[in-house]
Amino acid sequence: MRRWSWFLAAVVFLGVVVGLSGPAGAQQKIVIYAAQDEKTTNEMTRMFTEETKIGTEVIRVAAAGTLATRIRAEKAAPKADIFMGGSVEFHEPLATEGLVLPYRSPVVAEAKIDPAYVSPQNFWHGFFVNSLVIILNPQRFQREIASAGVAKPKTWDDLLNPVYAKKLTAGNPATCGGAYIFTALQIFRLGGEQQGFDWLKKLDGQILQYTPTCPGTITLVSRGEVAGGITWADDSIEAMLEKQPIDIVFPPDTGAEIGAISIIKGGPNPEGAKKWVDFALGKKAQALKTELGFTYPVRSDVDPPKNVPPLSDIKLGTYDRKFAIDNRERLTKKWEAEIGSKR
Amino acid sequence: MDKPYVELRHLGKRFGDVAAVADVSLDIPEGEITTLLGPSGCGKTTLLRLIAGFFPPDAGEIRIKGARVDHLPPQRRSTAIVFQDYALFPHLKVFENVAYGLRRRRVPGPEIARRVRDILDFLGLQGLEAASPLQLSGGQQQRVALARALVVEPDVLLLDEPLSNLDAKLRVRVRTELKEIQRSLGKTTIFVTHDQEEALSVSDRVAIMDAGRIRQVGTPVEVYTRPADRFVADFVGIANLVPGTVRALTVEGLVLDSPLGTLTLPPRPGAAPGQRVTILLRPEAIRLFGAPGPDRIPARIRSTSFLGGMRRHHLQVEAFSLTADEAFAGTGDVGGQDVWLTVCTGQVHLLAGETA
Amino acid sequence: MSSESLTHLPAPGLPGWRARALLREPVTLVVGLGVGGLLLLFVLWPILEVVTYAPAGDYLRLGENARWIRATTNTFRMVALSTATATLVGFLYALALSRPDFPGRELLRLIAILPLFSPPFTIGFSYLLMFGRFGVISHGLFGLEASILGWGSLWAVQTISNFPFAALAIERALSATPPTLEAAARDLGGGWLAVFRTVTLPLVRPAVAGAALLVAIYVLADFANPLIIGGDFPLLATEAWYRIDGWGDLRGATLLAATLLPPALILFLAERYWVSRRSYVVIAGRGSSLDRPPLPVSLRWGLTLFCGLTAGLILSLYFGVVAGAFTRTWGVDWTPTLTQWGVALTKLDHIRNSLVFAAAAGVGATVLGTVAAYLVDQKAFPGGRLLDALCVLPAAVPGVFFGIGYLLVFNRPGVALAGTGLVMVLAFTFHNLPFSFQIARAGLAQIHRNLADAAADLGAYRFRILWDVHLPLIFPACVSAWTTAFVNSVTNLSIAVFLVSGGNQVATFSILGLIGDNRLEAASAVTTLLLLTTLLVVGAAWWLSRGARVIPGVLGG
Lengths: 343, 356, 557
Description:
heterotrimer, A: alpha/beta, D-Maltodextrin-Binding Protein, domain 2, 10 strands, C: mainly alpha, MetI-like fold, 2 domains, two-stranded antiparallel sheet
């Protein structure tokens, strides 16, 4: 008798699980794959549902690669409507593979958004801009750099000062997009591949360790494992505001990413997806994103984040995005061969 | 015999290269205990399992009450087996163990209760329905296993060395009980053992097996006093085997020359002068004397074992080693190392052929 | 006792007999085909999908990528190092655990198995908190300031995380060597070391080798620890993840995951066919209860010290995790706070999902594993060897592989499962099938053949016998199988990471997200909560199974 009751319990339990785990109710909704922090994502979706009465189901990760992979894997039967976050470098290849639904939001014309922030073929819409910065651990900087009489670094070249030897960190361009952008940036900044790589080799002497993920540099700097590092502004600002020991320097000639949104072709709710794009480019969403995400808006009528020099002050270095995207494979292999494997 | 209850015809079973059972044919009469007796590896357990149905024979037929059963799985055969280790279900109480077969046959609850209680009473296990098999003694466990087999009223009861796990003393008592139980129920029973004493005491008929074949079938007395060959002679009891030659056939009987002297046996047909034979003497057929005399053959005692009711002497006569039993009369032994012996010619059996 | 009372009669000789016998048992046939079908669908197919995703040419060009070459050599280096030290530490620990006279060994055992219940990154994470540059011990206590990220720390962390497997396996073997053997050797004049060297060691060698091989597979597939503490030390498992996470490169990822498969298979097969076959059956005569001779005093003290330090280390690491849940910013702002628990509570339904999915996967793995083990044990099905191989195969497949495979397989048009929690439950079920299968088999093997035969003789058919006889007797083994699958599923990261969907996030994934967001204290809180609930469930299961009788087999035999 006892055996039957166990068996029954197991069957009932399995049934409950299957039921629980099925796709959610039939209320109108969109499925979003978001490469963005939790807080911002939650607020944005809440606001969106309030405004449009369309529900959202979100899968949120810190970095965009997993989501891009997901989208590729699901191409025979796409589950998501929106791919949000991650720089254009992730969205373009998906578009090339035919996984994206072209759309141009009317908000672009309305808000006179800079055409640089919208895909010419309507594959993606940029919804934030994020720049690369130098971060410093104040304690270590004070003890080891300032005490040696060196001033705070202002430019990338300042980091080549021998006082920083083995005291810096940066992302590994083979595994994190931001580090790759930084690598490509040097090529454009210094006027050629050879010059860029020469500079990177010099920088390599300063690096204690490359981190596999971009936000990883913040952890190392905050924990004092290194004195300084190179990473994205938004993560850094967030860490600083959380009272982590981070100082931020915005060098000129810096690289930037355009965070994009694209609509996935064949997703369950393309109309809802379009509404999301319009929403994300709207004033309220942009203000929200800027406030919570610490990035620059793409709309000119929204204020940039506090504590941060305005976008116009940051001289974004020339950056040939197309070249960077097309040569990614080759350049990362070259980096690995000439720098990564030599460590 | 009347139509045999169980018929085995040319049964064969191989495992890999080995023929565990080879061309076995046997008739098993109704209501009797038939024992399969033989040394380890002779195939008796395999044969029993074939009858039970645990695997199909490679060749031959098995019939129970005239109907072929060798294609039926054990679930559908009217046999019930008691294993050497009893195989009681440790997680079930005694009642449920015994009731198991009835439940599988979908016998209604009240009838199950009645039949189980009856069989437990019959076997002296009253009051143990709620006990766990783990709490019972060896003898009790064996009886529960028996109850479990009997309660389903099988046509044939199969017992696979049921006494081997019991202490020596218990074994003797239980085998007597088993025989009594079988008698009162009249159940056709096939009993497997390697212990010849057990086989002789319990059985109505004995089938001696060796290397997958049956060597002889007969009553216990038959196989003991008139074994068919050396193997049976040696296996069933202690065999003193000496060579002999037929000297003559006279009116008094068959005259043999042998190392034990000239023996005159009751006449028997088929013997011719000059024929070589093997003489079988059981230990009780040798009489010992402390002094020489007519027809007495000298022998030397090598060693003696005291067995309680008798003394067993290991003798040397010329090149032959013999075993002779002498009843123990409570006094000292026959004395010394030199003895003289005679043969009780009425208890001599002849086997064909040379002594090897 | 006659030697004819065989426990398992050899298979009858005529060819095709099993197939013919099967036709007489339609239920068995259906069940066998069903089990086989499930295995092909949920084990073999995902594996094939991963291996064939990248075009063959890519495999040939593997050698061109310097980083991937590095990843490969690094992986093998870590496997060699971590396995060696984990086995050694495990052995010493097992030595202590197997001596009844050793003080506090139950406590030592409890501490040693803590890593087995925790999410895989717990040790690495805590190691960072305790020994990092501003770690409590390295900095707080010793005033050191050294970077610990890199392969050295990974080595330490992998050793600590994996030695429990080795310790438990070796302890089992040490305890199984009869004390009478060692006593006999001593009686013949051997000192402790000589006896150990010539009697004990050779007898447990297969178990030690087996434990080492299994640890090696875990290290090979280790995913979470390198993420946290490996720094930029490329390894195959993590590179596969980075291809996906950093680049969205599914082709590269499947390629790298596929390269993990051959070494894993080799280790796996080595364990099965070389080590397991050589396990020694001890001919010791009737058992007699004899206490083990005491260890030499110096060794005793040495072992006590060693195990004490090891246990102390583990405890401090767990202390770190729990303490982290109560601080504002570890290493910087020690203000005790409960805000992190507020965050943890928002993740409650992730934890609920983790527990529910893991429990369901446990049920699935146990039921399927028991049925399959029964079919194989009873030799009821002609494809028995194939069934056995398929059931155990997932043990050789790294979690990353499984995750990607299920992702690929269950996203075809017409497959309704995709995106549901059910896919994750299935992935966990089949990933854990080897454990439940082998536990069930071991349990079934202890049941004397005669019990099943007696039931058959009395009228019970194949699966009735499973229900009536085997299941009640192996109930504790089933609970054990369930618990193993449960714990493995709750703490799994490598599969979960690929299969989470909107409403079906699990706790390990949340924790990874928090770590990625650099919110280590909140991650501590969620980890602690997960650990507590896991231990609660496991405790309940253990309590339940003790209520069931543990019966070591047949009576009288």
